[in-house]
Design goal:
single chain, about 550 residues, alpha/beta, six-stranded mixed beta sheet, about 20% strand, elongated
Length: about 550
């Protein structure tokens, strides 16, 4: 039997596009002699559809798409992910399902049993777990254990789950495991994913074909990287990361034939982050119907990296960099920004904000009489810049890219309605130390980001001689501390026990917790880490807990 895996980029709710892609892949599989073609979890509607699932019309459109797909499923079997109605009307109205389509009709449904409800996942909100009637599917007389994403992620007897679908399916003596997935990207996820899949092969003594999807759905990025394993858990094939792909595998006599074992070679973290951010930017614009971006370019490393990423993702001709010097901006910052614009070939405008900031300070002079210059005046400058770039957005239909990094987002080192403005946050899940590494990666072949933007001390340049280090610990220390608290969820006591200064730990954690209201109002953040701000980290705005 020849089995095709179609690793595609879906668009949530775009049934015409998704159905067209699926049908094209079915026809390609048929033309290449495949007996079975397999698509990812919820491929028909895109993942995660969230509250679209609460609309009756949305589910009806899913069913119409399935009927259209079924019409071309002659001389081939198709497995495709789709939400399906729960006919029992007990529990939730829907299942997260895989449909087996043959001879122009749906011949079997498999329902996802283990519904993830952590981090970015919220499947119990919509779906009923399929905890009964575990049955293998059969293709050309071969029994196959078909599971959906999380159904294979309980290999270590996760206490959240009381049963294992594979423990039931293995009783029917399948010859192969198939897993269709929507497995989100993070730069640490792939190692774990490969181990879990390999361990399943060893546990059940079965080969495995695993199909993931690719593409970005606002903040959630899918990296593809579909796999083939033999029954010993040895990796036989690895499909492309961060792009669509299509492979056909020859399966016979319980083996995936014609493939020699390959070494698993994960991409370096920073390369994964780079590819993920490019895909995230590109899909956000394409799937939203926009093509042109605007951002404020300061001459610093964060905005330089965002500008370079946007130019690569969208084309430099579609990026407008606006330089907005204040009376505190240094000449070298303007020069660094201009050097970047020349290196990239993107568009630019220079609009000084001194007059605007002075006008606001003049308006407030009587109200603020006798009070010293402080962050109020600094924030006025940042908000003047936001007015300018938003004016470009409104006038020309540009989408504003936010340039704040994760370190700044974490401790609230940013101005709400100022430099925290934007439609999508590119670096909001990238710590400052990672931004430096990313800049050097972007410069791996030639200098794109001016070296001076990389080596100079970080500064917001909102007062004379200002440096980030005036307000924050050294970024190497800060980021290490933040990682312990945010990604690893360590308490203050546990962090202090590692040797961090107790007063610094208490100060930083308080900054993180009191800045929650800012993050609540900011742009969605492209998720590249195992714990990003946003939907995967839901904290109370007025909680007093300091860990």
């Amino acid at each position: 039997m020849k089995i095709a895996l179609a690793q595609l980029n879906y668009h949530i709710g775009n049934f015409e596009s998704n159905t067209s892609k699926i049908i094209q892949a079915i026809n390609k599989a048929k033309a290449e002699g495949a007996d079975l073609v397999v698509f990812a979890e919820l491929a028909v509607c895109g993942y995660p559809p969230r509250d679209f699932l609460e609309f009756t019309e949305f589910i009806d459109l899913c069913e119409e798409a399935i009927n259209t797909i079924a019409e071309v499923c002659t001389d081939i079997v198709c497995i495709v992910g789709v939400p399906s109605k729960n006919p029992a009307h007990e529990g939730k109205d829907l299942f997260n399902s895989a449909y087996v389509i043959q001879d122009g009709k749906v011949v079997q449904q498999v329902h996802k049993a283990l519904l993830p409800n952590y981090d970015v996942f919220d499947e119990y909100r919509y779906f009923e777990p399929g905890l009964s009637n575990f049955n293998c599917i059969e293709v050309k007389g071969t029994p196959i254990a078909l599971t959906i994403c999380e159904d294979l992620w309980n290999i270590n007897d996760n206490p959240l789950y009381l049963m294992s679908p594979m423990d039931e399916l293995i009783k029917q003596k399948p010859a192969l495991m198939l897993n269709i997935a929507a497995s989100p990207f993070s730069y640490v996820h792939d190692d774990n994913r490969v181990k879990v899949l390999s361990d399943n092969c060893k546990k059940y003594n079965l080969p495995l074909l695993y199909i993931n999807q690719v593409g970005a759905q606002t903040e959630i990025i899918f990296d593809g990287g579909s796999f083939a394993f033999d029954k010993e858990g040895v990796l036989l094939d690895q499909m492309n990361y961060f792009k669509e792909d299509f492979r056909i595998y020859d399966f016979n006599n319980g083996k995936i034939n014609g493939l020699d074992p390959i070494a698993y070679k994960p991409l370096p973290d920073i390369e994964q982050i780079h590819h993920g951010l490019i895909l995230g930017i590109r899909d956000y614009f394409y799937k939203s119907g926009f093509s042109k971006a605007v951002l404020g370019l300061s001459g610093g490393i964060d905005s330089a990296v965002v500008c370079a990423l946007a130019a690569e993702a969208l084309g430099p001709e579609n990026v407008m960099a606006v330089l907005m010097p204040s009376k505190y901006s240094t000449d070298h910052s303007v020069k660094d920004a201009m050097d970047l614009v020349k290196n990239l070939g993107c568009k630019h405008q220079i609009i000084a904000i001194k007059d605007a900031a002075d006008a606001f300070e003049g308006m407030l002079e009587t109200a603020f009489k006798g009070l010293p210059f402080n962050t109020t005046e600094e924030n006025i400058q940042a908000r003047c810049r936001a007015i300018v770039v938003m004016a470009f957005s409104n006038k020309f239909g540009f989408i504003l890219l936010n340039t704040s990094n994760k370190s700044e987002c974490a401790v609230g080192y940013g101005t709400l309605y100022g430099d925290m403005a934007g439609a999508i946050s590119v670096l909001g899940d990238v710590y400052k130390t990672q931004v430096f590494t990313l800049a050097n990666y972007i410069n791996r072949e030639r200098e794109i980001i001016p070296n001076n933007s990389i080596i100079k001390p970080p500064s917001a340049e909102l007062r004379p001689g200002q440096k980030d280090s005036d307000s924050l610990p050294d970024y190497e220390v800060l980021d290490s501390l933040l990682y312990q608290y945010i990604e690893l969820k360590k308490s203050s006591k546990a962090i202090i026990a590692q040797g961090f200064d107790p007063e610094m730990v208490k100060k930083v954690l308080k900054m993180v917790n009191t800045a929650e209201f800012k993050r609540y109002q900011t742009a969605p953040i492209l998720r590249v880490s195992p714990k990003a701000f946003g939907m995967g980290r839901r904290m109370p705005l007025v909680g007093k807990y300091l860990s």
